[in-house]
Amino acid sequence: MEAQGLLIERIFLTVFPLVAIVTVGFIYARRYKPDMNVANQINIDVFVPALIFAVLSAESFDLIKYQSLAIGAAIVVLGSGLLLLPFCRLFKVHPKTFIPPMMFSNSGNLGIPLIVLAFGEHALQAAVVLFLVENVLHFTVGIYILDHKTRLLNLLRMPMIVATILGLVWSGFNLPIPESVHTFIDMLGQIAIPLMLFALGVRMTSVDFSNWRIGTYSAVLCPLSGIAIALLCQQFLQLDPVQLAYLVVFGALPPAVLNYMIAERYNQEPHQVASIVLLGNMGSLIFIPLTLAFVL
């Protein structure tokens, strides 16, 4: 009984701060209707790259240590799309509308803070690796799904990718970083996570429930498919128990808000995608605690 109480307390301490920040963003946006475009752009161009570089350039970062985890993350992303592809005909929804949100999860806004809060600060490196794998696939495979004419070389212009390359170079060659510079970059990076969560709350005010049926199906299928693929990966990846827990939590994450923004840009039924994203993130209030109870 005591062990169950400690588990419930740990899950609450993990989930509550995330939900609270998202709720603050939602309430603030309902009252003041802020324009988050500039803040989101700065986060993507400055704060998130700073976080990535600060983590990857650290002396303690070992890329080889997370090699199997990165492979597992890629399999979870791609495997979820393949597993759920037959449901497009069942739900009478276009694959370009349904499949990307099922593949590309909220590994930034929700995933990084969730994994850090659930497993401790030492899990930040793994959380960033999972985020990078998902993000790179989103801006390559995900964009290609919507537009076969896209130029993948444009990926190299993204600040997050540049920060990743520089961080790995710094870590790989053990290049020194002055303490003052490291503190400066680290402080910039610390802005990224709470701003992501706040922006998620703001974004939730701009979508509706007009396509609630497909959104409800997605809220269940997205985490179940991700968890199933993650557990299947373990049969041949043989991850240690901690990294397996990271991968299962990664698989349980809801659709990324970015799916809605990209669908809007490519005019791919953005209202349906909005419902999938919104209800998927609402459904995570049920699936995330259950997943934490499973892995902790």
Automatic annotation (TrEMBL):
Pfam families: Mem_trans (PF03547). It is found in: Cell membrane. The keyword Transcription regulation does not apply. The chain crosses the membrane at residues 6-29, 41-58, 70-91, 103-120, 126-146, 158-177, 183-202, 214-237, 243-262, 274-295. One of its GO terms (cellular component) is plasma membrane. One of its GO terms (biological process) is transmembrane transport. Keywords: Cell membrane, Membrane, Transmembrane, Transmembrane helix, Transport. InterPro entries: Mem_transp_PIN-like (IPR004776), Na+/solute_symporter_sf (IPR038770). The keyword DNA-binding does not apply. It is a multi-pass membrane protein. Belongs to the auxin efflux carrier (TC 2.A.69) family. This is Auxin Efflux Carrier.
